[in-house]
């Protein structure tokens, strides 16, 4: 199967969209057709062995529309990139909008004198003498005809498109307008003939009758008002793609590359993989690549959401559309053109915005038969009034009113405009939704399943407790020795100990010998002593009894979900260091928001039951499933679905792929990697679990908006068509003129577009961080997904951690000169264990540190010194 995108021209309403879809879907070998009225595009999945591009194009052209492949084989460099295609689409839309505006202004300029001639005398306005009185009725009629014809010529597109649609047996909204205004014009010409007959035969009564039954102004007013509506609608639709415009603006237009030893400035689209790109302060990075030389601080907020510039040096990856704030460097281009991170984001947003949501299917089905049904109702209306004896003019007026008041556009626009605005708004929050179906499905979710490692937690072990047990052994001395012993190990837990010692600026003596024992621990010789480091079982195997106090500490730390490491020298226990994968800063807030949204939260982890319970208790999650392998995660999701739940799975997009695929919606947390983008329905670019809650809130807002649009579209047509047909004439004497009908029709489409545009003002209703998650309601139910050794639902969780500390300290730091320095100090302080957050103000030279554990002033000041700056004071608030 092959999937190809085509540009389609000539579509003006939902009926056109339905006609093109129906036509192509009938072709042999076509598996799926997705036509977008907003983007004037069509995506076709077909068997290229049974069908060709030319056959698809020919089928579309046969029913009166134009089509061509969206990606021609040849062209200028960059012309066939997504950016080039987008620019062509925008230029075409701008051209059409300008032409429509010119047509509208010209029509209005002619319509004003036409209405004056037609209605002036009835309104008591002064009218030229040669247009007054029955004796001049034919002159007035001819004047109206000559003013009407230019307006109809200016808006001839309604006739060419509408009548062609009728001829090809695929009528559209233009067909309704063409038939309605054309019938008014023809009746006006007929009335002129009757007036001429009256003058010729001396029948002034006949002249008087038809002089007041001219419909020239109705014919001109219908096409002009529809054009007004189309123009306002096109302007509204243009605003739906504002998010894509902003994303496009992020990419620089040019790049400086080194070729043949010389720097050249070329269009960014012409950068090739392997090119050496030069970046100076303040410049945007045009493509993805790897830094070869130099150093800089890159603002990646637009892509990853990181608030501070990130230091980049040789070997580091840089992303397109990020900005180099300070420093200069050269990097080797690796992903260029449509393969860059920004291009992938833009393509996903565009595809999601133009794809079909399931909620749109009913509207599409109705749009496909809407126009023929309305034409049948109009004909039936005219026949009924004729049979009731109300005359041809009355019957014709009612029939025309039915034609021009009905609006398939309101039905067709109800869903896609809201979807396009919604996916664009999601992109502004760093949420990439891959399809409209995923955006719609999110609002159904009632259960969120969270992977622990890398989703709820940071995914990087860190030291949480340091407990020296040997008499007279200070904490810093114990940590220095432990880190020196672990320095030769590549195990993540050992690395956490080493990083903690380095962050405190402690010396790391060189060991004389080192041996790693897989799955147990390490042996080392240091300063003449024989050291052992590892778990309790390893020390016991080596003939060392940890003792009752150490065993009690081991059990306590394990119960808190931490991994205790024991250290001994010459057969005597030195102490314990606990390491744990800590919760992300925003995990508590995210879980709280899930509860506020009415979702059940389930945590999956491969850890043991004790660790799972400790982490879920800390996060405020009511159910945890432990000892789960990647394949079993999929089984957990499946069992939840079998219980009738709609499951949102949030994971890292790599190890959780089976569960992400099984879930009703899979959501990957990742900073825009290819694997993350490919493996889930939704990608959270900012690496924040909070954005999962934002995505659900946005989905609910979009669906509410779509339902409002659909209600209005159905309500308008169900109410408007009977009124136009004269349903209120007999009981109340109310009859709708064709002019009012066309005005109402134009207004309905504009209302739908404007209502959808309200989504642009969507605000993230994120709950404030309270520091603790809400206590879940007690439950006595069995686990939703029992597995071997799985944790049962956790009841009556208490999220208060014993010994929890909240403290603020302010340091005065000298030596900071620029944003580069500010970022260095902030990074140094944030890396100190026990620091919850750090904020540095360059102007006041103050660093404010929020602590989650007791950290000595000297430790904070040493961290600043290690970064190369001079801390002069540290005060506790």
UniProtKB/TrEMBL annotation:
It comes from the Bacteria. The keyword Nucleotide-binding applies. Keywords: ATP-binding, Cell membrane, Copper, Copper transport, Ion transport, Magnesium, Membrane, Metal-binding, Nucleotide-binding, Repeat, Translocase, Transmembrane, Transmembrane helix, Transport. It is an enzyme of class 7 (translocase). The keyword GTP-binding does not apply. Its EC number is 7.2.2.8. The chain crosses the membrane at residues 104-125, 137-155, 176-194, 214-232, 366-388, 394-419, 710-730. It is a multi-pass membrane protein. Its main location: membrane. GO terms for cellular component: plasma membrane. One of its GO terms (biological process) is copper ion homeostasis. Belongs to the cation transport ATPase (P-type) (TC 3.A.3) family. Type IB subfamily. NCBIfam families: ATPase-IB1_Cu, ATPase-IB_hvy, ATPase_P-type, copper ion binding protein. This is Copper-exporting P-type ATPase. It comes from Candidatus Acutalibacter pullistercoris.
């Amino acid at each position: 199967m092959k999937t190809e995108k085509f540009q389609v021209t000539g579509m003006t309403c939902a009926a056109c969209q339905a006609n093109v879809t129906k036509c192509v879907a009938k072709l042999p070998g076509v598996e799926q057709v997705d036509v977008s009225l907003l983007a004037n595009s069509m995506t076709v999945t077909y068997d290229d062995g049974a069908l060709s591009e030319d056959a698809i194009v020919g089928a579309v052209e046969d029913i009166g529309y134009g089509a061509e492949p969206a990606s021609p084989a040849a062209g200028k460099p960059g012309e066939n990139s997504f950016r080039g295609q987008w620019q062509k689409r925008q230029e075409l839309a701008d051209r059409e909008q300008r032409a429509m505006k010119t047509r509208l202004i010209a029509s209005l300029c002619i319509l004003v004198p036409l209405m004056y001639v037609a209605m002036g005398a009835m309104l008591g306005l002064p009218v030229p003498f040669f247009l007054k009185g029955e004796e001049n009725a034919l002159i007035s009629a001819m004047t109206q005809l000559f003013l009407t014809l230019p307006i109809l010529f200016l808006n001839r597109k309604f006739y060419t498109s509408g009548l062609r649609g009728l001829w090809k047996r695929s009528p559209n909204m233009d067909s309704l307008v063409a038939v309605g205004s054309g019938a008014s014009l023809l009746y006006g010409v007929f009335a002129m003939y009757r007036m001429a007959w009256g003058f010729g035969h001396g029948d002034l009564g006949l002249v008087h009758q038809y002089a007041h039954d001219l419909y020239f102004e109705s014919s001109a007013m219908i096409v002009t008002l529809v054009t007004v509506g189309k123009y306002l609608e096109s302007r509204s639709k243009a605003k739906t793609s504002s998010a894509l415009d902003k994303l496009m603006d992020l990419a620089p237009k040019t790049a400086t590359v080194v070729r043949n030893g010389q720097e050249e400035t070329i269009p960014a689209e012409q950068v090739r993989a392997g090119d050496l790109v030069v970046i100076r302060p303040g410049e945007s990075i045009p493509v993805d690549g790897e830094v070869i030389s130099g150093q800089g601080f890159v603002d990646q907020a637009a892509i990853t959401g990181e608030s501070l510039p990130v230091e980049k040096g040789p070997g580091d990856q840089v992303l397109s559309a990020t900005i180099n704030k300070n420093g200069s460097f050269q990097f080797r281009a690796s992903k260029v053109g449509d393969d860059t991170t920004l291009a992938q984001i833009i393509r996903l947003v565009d595809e999601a915005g133009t794809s079909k949501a399931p909620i749109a299917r009913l509207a599409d089905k109705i749009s496909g038969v809407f126009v023929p049904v309305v034409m049948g109702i109009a004909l039936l209306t005219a026949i009924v009034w004729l049979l009731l004896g109300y005359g041809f003019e009355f019957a014709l007026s009612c029939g025309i009113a039915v034609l021009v008041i009905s609006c398939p556009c309101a039905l067709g626009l109800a869903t896609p405009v809201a979807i396009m605005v919604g996916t664009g708004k999601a992109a502004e929050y760093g949420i990439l939704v891959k399809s409209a179906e995923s955006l719609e499905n999110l609002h159904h979710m009632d259960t969120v399943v969270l992977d622990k490692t890398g989703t709820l937690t940071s995914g990087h072990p860190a030291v949480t407790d340091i407990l020296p047990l040997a008499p007279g052994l200070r904490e810093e001395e114990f940590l220095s020795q432990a880190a020196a012993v672990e320095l030769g190990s590549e195990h993540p837990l050992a690395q956490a100990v080493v990083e903690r010692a380095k962050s405190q600026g402690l010396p790391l003596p060189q060991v004389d010998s080192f041996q790693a024992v897989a799955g147990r621990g390490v042996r080392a010789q240091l300063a003449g002593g024989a050291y052992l480091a590892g778990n309790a079982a390893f020390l016991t195997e080596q003939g060392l009894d940890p003792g009752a106090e150490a065993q009690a500490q081991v059990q306590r730390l394990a119960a808190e979900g931490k991994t205790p490491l024991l250290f001994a020298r010459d057969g005597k226990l030195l102490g314990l260091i606990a390491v744990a994968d800590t919760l992300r800063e925003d995990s508590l807030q995210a879980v709280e928001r899930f509860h506020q949204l009415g979702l059940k939260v389930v945590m999956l982890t491969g850890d043991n039951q004790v660790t799972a319970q400790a982490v879920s208790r800390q996060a405020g999650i009511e159910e945890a499933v432990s000892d789960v392998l990647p394949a079993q995660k999929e089984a957990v999701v499946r069992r939840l679905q079998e219980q009738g739940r709609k499951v949102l799975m949030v994971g890292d997009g790599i190890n959780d792929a089976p569960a992400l695929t099984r879930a009703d919606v899979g959501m990957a947390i990742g900073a825009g990697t290819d694997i993350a983008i490919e493996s889930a329905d939704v990608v959270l670019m900012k690496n924040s679990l909070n954005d999962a809650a934002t995505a659900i809130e946005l989905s609910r807002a979009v669906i509410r908006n779509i339902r409002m649009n659909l209600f209005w579209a159905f309500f308008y047509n169900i109410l408007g068509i009977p009124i136009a047909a004269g349903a209120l004439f007999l009981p109340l004497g109310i009859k709708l003129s064709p002019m009012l009908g066309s005005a109402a029709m134009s207004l309905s489409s504009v209302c739908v577009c404007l209502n959808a545009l309200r989504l642009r003002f969507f605000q993230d209703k994120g709950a404030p961080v309270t520091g603790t998650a809400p206590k879940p309601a007690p439950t006595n139910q069995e686990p939703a997904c029992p597995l071997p050794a799985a944790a049962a639902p956790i009841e009556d969780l208490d999220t208060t951690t014993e010994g929890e500390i909240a403290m603020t300290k302010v340091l005065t730091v000298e030596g900071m000169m620029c944003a580069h320095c500010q970022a260095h100090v902030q990074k140094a302080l944030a890396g100190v264990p026990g620091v919850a957050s750090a904020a540095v103000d360059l102007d006041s030279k103050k660093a404010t540190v929020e602590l989650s554990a007791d950290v000595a002033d000297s430790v904070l000041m040493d961290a600043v010194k290690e970064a190369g700056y001079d801390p002069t004071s540290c005060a506790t608030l």
